[in-house]
Amino acid sequence: MLKRPGASAKNNPLSERLQRDAHALVEEMSQLRGVAFDRRYASNELAYHKAVNQLVEQTFIPNIDNAEVKELLEAGLRIFREMSAMPES
Description:
By secondary structure, the chain is mainly alpha-helical. The protein has one domain (about 15-85). The chain is about 75% helix and about 0% strand. The protein contains three helices and no strands. It is flat. It starts with 12 loop residues before the first helix and ends with a helix.
């Protein structure tokens, strides 16, 4: 995907922080079991999806010049919003 529009992934302060946070979360959750694990997992997923949606909507989309990449992010954001609005089964 990144090769086609001429983009490339690069480490930056945000990606480095996300990696550190992910390692800390794995360490924390490896100590949890049962309901405590389920609650922490669900809480983390909800917070993560909200943060990603906000970042994509408020930072990435307004600042991307590549129309193809912008269109892909807009489509992805619509999908994530629709999925989050779906009732749980």
